[in-house]
Structures are given as structure tokens and as C-alpha cells.
Task: inverse folding
DNA sequence: CCGGACCCTGACCGACCGGTCAACGAAGGG
DNA sequence: CCCTTCGTTGACCGGTCGGTCAGGGTCCGG
């Protein structure tokens, strides 16, 4: 049990006993650090201090564990970010809140985030990832809509909206490759610093 | 043989017969699409139309193939980008050239780039990646130095240089996750569009 | 004609993979 | 008391993994 990382609640879509949560959070950490293929069911069982068979008592197979992690964390991310957008505020401030909330979510559910962001991005058979992609599209659509609103409000100059959205998402999605928790700027601050750079530009 | 993707020349560090190049480029494509663990030596041999044993005639083990790809492409990237920086030009233009050159390199050596960028980023034992990291540091140091020069020249306002560098690199390194070759904007143009957004800012 | 040197092969190895199965022990309701 | 349910286990399965090995073919210099 020991030092397990938090998992997003994700009530629906399966039972959430303590043991299940332990398996999910432990697996998320392993998937994030050694990859999907690099993590065996034996590794997970050993890290949980249980037998391999017990994993199959709670989950149908390895894919289901992974799918629960990625789908759950992606859905929670979108809902968390949406809940953090200040209603009625200026579009640019809402973009800033979007980025800060993403940084905070990343900081809180680091392993699940990394596992979701890293693996299977180009799996042709797209195992159980279709529903996750729906949430991912909603997340990407959200930042584009915020940018469009900022353009309509005259805060942002007319530009390639999908590309601008990708620029924002690139900065956020690449954070896990260099950011160390408990070291340097907290992730939400990094996200806000990124916003300031992107919004105002590097130019003097 | 058939449809093999180009590999950077990388003369030094091993023989470069046609067969070796075929193995390297085929492996790069497989590593990029199915990951390191997801690519077996049998897969590589089959895709090359040769026996698995022949792989071990040309390479000591799987790691050596991977190391040749990642080290070679990283080294070539740095040297390519450095050769593309306009001497004596304004620092901001040199940053723009840095980004465009990276986009062009990505477009040209797509599989090797993706294989290098995707895998083993947090391998604790860091197999044969130490020399590659030296080149990676040089690449990252280069963009930071360019930004510092732009600040000294008064083109860019004083700011967190490492963070600004990471913003630039994030945009470039995330491209492979969404950019399709032969579809949409060519990668160098994307890189330049990114520069314009980051340099001038989204703000109207 | 000989003998290396160099490409190249199929058969094989132990280890580990994801997944299955029969059964055990404790808990709890009748 | 028994019976069912549920969390839990170790032994086991076929298949695939990275890697080895002995040797076949072919070409070339002597």
C-alpha cells in the first residue's frame, strides 16, 4: 500500500473499493514511469502487495485497468477545467484559467495524467480509447472556443485558431517531460507564466 | 526493402552499409509507430525481409539499434539546426530560423525523430542515452542562448529564459502528435507560425 | 582447388508475458 | 449448523520475448 498517488474519483464506470483504487493508482504510477508494454501484471501485483490473480478478480484484463485510468482521468480533467472557468469573465482571463486549471490537475493527478498523455496515442486499433477521445475532443474544442470568443471580443487578433489552440495545449502537454513535483515553480504557476508569454508575446 | 523512410547520414559510430541503413530506417518506423517494447526483433526482421539472426550479425542487441537511431538523429538535428542559423542576423530572426529548421528536420526524418522524442525519456538506467543527452542539452542550450541574445539586443523583454525556451521546444516537440505529413501546413511553416504567435503574442 | 571472410539462415534456449483455474478461508444470513 | 458469497491464492497454460548457436552459401585471393 505504502506511498500511493491519488487517483481522480471517477465514481461511475466501475466499483471503487479501496483495493480497486489502490490497484488503479499503483498501475497509473507504473504505466507512467515504465510504459504500458513495460509494465507487466506481475509488476502491478508485486507493487500492490497482492497476487496476480486478484488483479483479474477486479479487472477483466490489463487493458481494462489502463482504460479505467486514461478514461477516468481525461473525463475528470475536462470536468475539472470546465468547473474552473470564471463565468462572465473576459475571454482572455478564461483562457488563463483554463491553463492554470490544467496545470493544477496535472500537479494533483500526475501519474494518471502522464499515463493518459503518453501511451497509445497512435494505436491503430484504439483499444477502449474511443470514449476517451470524445472527452479529449471536448477539451480541445473548449480551448478553441475560448480563443474564438477572445477574438470576437477583440482581445486577440484574428489568427489560425486550431494552431493557436495547439500551441497552448503543446505547452501544457509537454510539461510532464521536464517538470518535477516539489521542485521549481508549481505547475499552475508555470501554466500562468506560459499564458502570459503566449498572450503578450516575447517581444519587448 | 520497399518503402523505407530516410535516415540521417550519421557516418561515424558504426558501419553504414545499405543493409544497416535499411534496418535502421525500418526499425525507426516501427519504434515510432508501435513503441520500443511494442516492437520485437521478429517484427523488425519481418519488415526488413530478413532473418532475425541477421539483425544480431549487424547489431549487438535491440538496444544498440535503438541507440543508433536516437543518438544519430539527435546529433544530426543539432548540427542541422546550427548550420541553418543566419550568421549576424537579428537574434529574433535566428530564433525563427531555429524553429523552422527544426520543423524541416522533423519533416525529413519523421520516424527517427518520433522514435527519439517518444521513448525512454525517463528510463532510470538510461541505457545508452547519455551521449544523446549531451546533444539534447546542447540543443536546449542553443535556444536559450538565442533568447538571451534577443533580450540583450532589446528585441525581447526580460523574462524567464529557461521557461521561454521550454515553451518554444514544447510547441516543436508536440508537433508529431498531431501533424500529418502531406496534409495541412508543412512542418516548417507550422514552426514559423508558432514563432510569430509566441514572439508577437496572441493579444490584438 | 583450397580456405577464410562475410552474409545469412532455421532451430533452439530460458525467461517472461497475459490470462485461467480450482480451491481456500473468513464472514454472514438462514 | 450449513450454505453462499467474496476476496484471495499458487500452480499452471500456450505463446512470445530477446538472444544464441552451428552451420550453409558465396565470393575472392592464393
Result:
Amino acid at each position: 500500500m505504502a506511498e500511493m498517488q491519488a487517483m481522480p474519483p471517477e465514481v461511475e464506470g466501475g466499483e471503487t473499493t479501496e483495493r480497486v483504487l489502490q490497484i488503479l493508482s499503483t498501475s497509473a504510477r507504473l504505466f507512467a514511469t515504465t510504459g504500458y508494454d513495460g509494465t507487466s501484471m506481475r509488476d502491478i501485483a508485486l507493487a500492490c502487495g497482492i497476487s496476480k490473480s486478484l488483479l483479474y478478480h477486479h479487472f477483466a484484463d490489463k487493458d481494462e485497468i489502463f482504460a479505467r485510468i486514461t478514461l477516468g482521468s481525461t473525463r475528470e480533467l475536462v470536468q475539472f477545467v470546465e468547473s474552473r472557468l470564471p463565468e462572465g469573465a473576459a475571454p482572455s482571463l478564461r483562457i488563463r484559467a483554463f491553463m492554470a486549471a490544467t496545470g493544477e490537475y496535472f500537479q494533483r493527478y500526475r501519474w494518471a495524467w502522464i499515463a493518459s498523455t503518453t501511451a497509445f496515442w497512435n494505436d491503430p486499433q484504439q483499444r477502449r480509447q474511443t470514449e476517451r477521445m470524445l472527452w479529449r475532443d471536448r477539451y480541445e474544442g473548449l480551448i478553441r472556443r475560448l480563443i474564438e470568443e477572445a477574438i470576437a471580443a477583440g482581445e486577440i487578433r484574428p489568427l489560425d485558431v486550431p494552431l493557436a489552440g495547439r500551441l497552448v495545449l503543446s505547452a501544457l502537454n509537454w510539461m510532464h517531460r521536464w517538470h518535477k513535483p516539489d521542485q521549481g515553480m508549481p505547475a499552475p504557476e508555470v501554466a500562468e507564466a506560459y499564458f502570459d508569454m503566449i498572450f503578450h508575446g516575447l517581444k519587448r
